[in-house]
Amino acid sequence: MSFLSPAEWQAVALSLRVSLWATALALPLAIGVALALARGHFPGKQLLNGLVHLPLILPPVVTGYLLLLTFGRRAPLGGWLYDTFGLVLAFRWTGAALAAGIMGFPLMVRAIRLAIEAVDPKLEQAAATLGASRAWVFATITLPLILPGIIAGAVLGFAKAMGEFGATITFVSNIPGQTQTLPSAIYALLQVPGAETSALKLVALSVTLAMGALLLSELLARRAAKRVSGA
Amino acid sequence: MSLRVQITHRFDSFTLNAAFDAPAGVTALFGASGSGKTTVVNAVAGLIKPDQARISLNDQMLCDSATRLWLPPHKRRLGYVFQEARLFPHLSVQQNLRYGRWFAGLRGDSAEETRLITLLGLGPLLARRPGALSGGEKQRVAIGRALLSAPELLLMDEPLAALDEARKAEILPYLERLRDETQIPILYVSHAMAEVARLATTVVVLSDGKVLRAGPVQNILSDPGIAPTIGLREAGAVLLAQVVTHHPDGLSELSAAGGRLFLPEVTAQPGRTLRVRILAQDVILSRTRPDGLSALNILPGTVSMIHAGDGPGVLVQLQTGDAQILARITQRSAQALELSEGKPCYAIIKSVSVAQDNVGRGA
């Protein structure tokens, strides 16, 4: 693409890859946690709720530092991951995906939880009397009915991942070609005199991607909602 | 085919303590709101766990507190029609109908499906979404969906309560056909005596969490003792009568146990058996066969029970043929006529007092 230089294109592609992975991996977990929070009765529910929302209220730099303390090469969990799976997170794009996923997680859970709470449990009861076990009730009734919420949550999470900066730069730094995502690239360009044109291009791209994602999600969610409303 | 229920469940304000058997046919669970009807049905369906219960269907235990047995709802093989249709909004009518069928391991397109779709008049609705259906249509789909899962028992919790009178009149004939043309026993919860009189073969009257009366519909509805529970205006016996002929003046002649009945034209072929609900307040009693009277229906009988309440009226049960009629008259009249058990008496019923709604298919 002639609009972008190879270095700029690299940042965009990395951001997309990081955000897609972050969304894809966080989504099933977010559905599970949203279900537990919406329907579950267990000790420590409020604690889980607080933990999920923590990245939303903590300064991102704190989240990034905590990630470094937990998943760094010499940290207990990071060391174990490296020894067992050869997986390195700190200062790699995988770490950027982890940071982006964690930062977007509360947004996903909130959207999905709202959708679950809007599902009439009476429909699930009816499905049970028709012979569906709990797993089948979830797969055939609950899941299709909360699909608009899942889409909304996924897009919110994706958008958050695309824009994540503080935790990412703290955890994985700002290495061009490795961990330099779109926001990090814009930040880096703004530090260089005379690079405003380049920065503006990326800013414009950022805005376009965000708007595009939003429109797409609106479209998908509206379609799903129409299906679900039964009209 | 029979359902045996024994439940104890403590609520904040009262304790439900009920035991009854529901044989084949329609067993109506009748009682005022808050008498525990829905709790009973939900316990049978497995949607709630009562404090103590022992429920069996045919030879299978559904739950037994003594052995801590509790089958989850999806293993009970019951069909449940709720007050609100509870159709799945994201599925078409056809997919809704086949939902339970799939879990029962049955084929979707079958003779049984075709038969029920015809019986319930669902053909034109199959491709549509539940959101676009009227209340009556939704409820018919819900009934079809429950039946197509091939249940061993059908539970219906006030399936008509959310519908207006026109929709009720639309669905009642389907329910009558269901009762007469399928072998599945039905437990039918209602607080509307008109529905019970039309549909029930067995009636269980619940009052304050206890079973007040239980037995065949003719015996229970002609029992003066349940009048306080069902309301004096709703008290009335159900007679089985066979259509003899339709007269050109717009009257239909029926043959009941106690004699001939003339009713405003009914839509049934001669030979068909109908059930006719005769409200106690529409019956006049006379010690002698009246003469020069406009009322056409005069049934001879003998007084079999007199029930006086707190008010100025009494309920008189009259044995006519092998059936009973209930009459509500004043105490003053009862004394003037010197009514007592065993006395011969005539029941007089105005033809036009029997509304179309109170005439339904027999059985």
How would you describe this protein?
With 231 residues, chain A is mainly α. Chain A is built from ten helices and no strands. In chain A, helix 1 (6-39) packs parallel to helix 5 (93-118), helix 2 crosses helix 5 and helix 6 runs antiparallel to helix 7. Chain A is globular. Chain A starts with 5 loop residues before the first helix and ends with a helix. Chain B has 363 residues and is of the alpha+beta class. Chain B has two domains: 2-226, P-loop containing nucleotide triphosphate hydrolases (Rossmann fold); 236-361, OB fold (Dihydrolipoamide Acetyltransferase, E2P) (Beta Barrel). Chain B has helices at residues 37-45, 93-103, 111-119, 135-148, 165-181, 193-199, 217-221, 227-230, 331-336, and strands at 2-10, 15-23, 26-30, 52-57, 60-64, 69-70, 78-81, 153-157, 186-190, 202-207, 210-216, 236-246, 251-256, 259-264, 273-279, 283-286, 297-308, 313-320, 323-330, 344-349, 359-361. In chain B, the strands form four sheets. In chain B, strands 7-8-9-3-10-11 form a six-stranded mixed β-sheet, sandwiched between helices. A five-stranded antiparallel β-sheet of chain B has the order 2-1-4-5-6, with helices on one face. A five-stranded antiparallel β-sheet of chain B has the order 14-13-12-15-21. In chain B, a hairpin with a 2-residue loop joins strand 4 (52-57) and strand 5 (60-64). The relative contact order of chain B is 0.12. Chain A binds chain B through residues 120, 122-123, 125-133, 136, 140-141, 144-145, 227-231, and chain B through 45-47, 72-74, 76-80, 82, 84, 86-90, 99-100, 103-104, 129-132, 145-146, 149, 155. Chain A: This is Molybdenum transport system permease. Chain A: One of its GO terms (molecular function) is molybdate ion transmembrane transporter activity. Chain A: It is a multi-pass membrane protein.
Key features?
heterodimer, A: 231 residues, mainly alpha, MetI-like fold, globular, B: 363 residues, alpha+beta, Rossmann fold, OB fold (Dihydrolipoamide Acetyltransferase, E2P), 2 domains, six-stranded mixed sheet, five-stranded antiparallel sheet, 9 helices
